[in-house]
Structures are given as structure tokens and as C-alpha cells.
Amino acid sequence: MLHDISMIYAEHNGTYGYRRIADEYNAIHEKKYNRKRFYRLAHIVGLLAVIRRKRPAYQRSTPEVTAENILNREFTANTVNEKWCTDVTEMKYGSEGEKAYLSAILDLKGRDIVSFAIGKSNNNQLVFETFDLAVQKYPDAHPLFYSDRGFQYTSRSFKEKLNKQGMQQSMSRVGRCIDNGPMEGFWGILKCEMYYLNRFETYEALVSAVEQFIHYYNHQRRQHKLNCLPPATYRSLLEAA
Hints:
By secondary structure, the chain is α/β, with parallel strands linked by helices. The protein is built from 8 helices and 5 strands; from the N terminus they run αααβββαβαβααα. It starts with a helix and ends with a helix.
């Protein structure tokens, strides 16, 4: 059992703590061992998971369009494509600390990343591309669309895109990152389990790592709240039901 625990830890690049190791082991071996057992065994072999860092705050611009906080921290959904959350995060690469930006949309039922886009500028084009990719993937989806009050989401152009797709807009309150908790949580996972563990000399290397991690997150990384299934598998089961 210690060998299997060590293998799971290594397979996920040291990012799994005892809880996720327990979920992975139990799923693979069809067991229901208590997490406390894995806590003890992980300490015996000296396995420690990486710790997430706090995300810095960013200044917001004057909005053209605002919307009520309809979601109001109701982060559960009854079906896939009922509620989508979105956000943009900053990353750096190269010896001069050049900036790159990742935009993503997350489904609140399946917890999968519906779409994402990476660019060197935090602009409307980045957010619009992310949105367009999501619509291409699920053209019949009309979710409640939730974001913070970043300038891209409060632009008239973005509001028009939402209206065209029949989506209702919802926005967090000013300065309340917790209002977009699921997206903040995903950024924490991505940065803790991939970004902070590596140095990226080029933009291309960073893009490749992000693409690989999001595929891993959607298709391999089990979530306890999803019956210990990866998001893509969980979504597929819901869609087939």
C-alpha cells in the first residue's frame, strides 16, 4: 500500500495531499479506506503536498455595463451548462518577467473548464475568444454567465455577445473575490500544481504547460465532490443520464 501511495504521489508531480491520494487509491482499487489511514501513511513516507499562494488583487476600471449579483454565491447547479463562471489570471515567463494572461470559463455543475484562451495582452479579444470557443463547443447552451467587474465583462460589446446567445449576465460585487470562488479555486489549483512548480523561459513553453494541465484537470484529476471522478467523465455521465 505504501508503494501505491508513493506511485500516486509521483504520478501527480507531488501535488496530491493525503485526501486526493485517498480518493485516487480508493477509486483505482475499489476500496473505501478512511482518509485518516492515508494521512498516517503519507507521513510515514514523508509525502507533502504543495501549498497554494494567495492571489493578488487587481485594479478595476470604470464599467460601461454592470449587472446584479444574481448568482449570489450559489455555486451549485442542477444541470451542466446552467451556470458558467469566468475570469482572467496573470502569469509570467522569461528572464524579464514578461506577462501572459489566461482566460477561462468553468461550468458549475461539471466543474470542467469549458474553454480557455491565452494571450500576451489582457484585453477584450482574449475574453471574447474564450467566450466564442465556449459557444462553438456548446451552441445550444444558455447559462447564467458570471464574472467579476473586469473591464472586458462590463463592456457593451461583451453584453451584446451575451444577449445574442440568450445568456443572462451576473457580476460579483466590487472587491469581493470570494463571490467568484470556483474560478479563484481553479486558479489556485493550476498555479499551485503546475505554474509555481516550474520556470518558463519562453511564452510557448508556458502555453504548452497550461494546455497540458487543463487537459489533465478535465480528464484525469479526480474531484471528491464529483464522486471521485475527473470533470470530463462526470459531465459525460450527466449528459448521458
